[in-house]
Protein: MoaD/ThiS family protein
Organism: Dolichospermum heterosporum TAC447
Amino acid sequence: MAVKVLIPTALQKFTNEQAALECSASNISGLLDSLEVSCPGIKSRLCDEAGNLRRFLNFYVNSEDIRFLEGAETVLKDGDEVSIVPAVAGG
């Protein structure tokens, strides 16, 4: 099952400067593991020491925020697009 993952510029040093990758995974948690296999070191930037998604990153599946779906257990289907978006703060 192929899922397209959009990588933010700040993390592209782990993806050989690629802005998009294709991975196979059944949910977000599995996607993180798949990304780590193909891009060593990226998972520690996406997850904290306990393995939870970092709070300053937002994950979207087909433009839907996973915080309003099933979080890291959000199911992925063939052809889905996952966007990783750094949170922006300020005034």
About this structure: The chain has two helices and five strands. The mean pLDDT is 95.
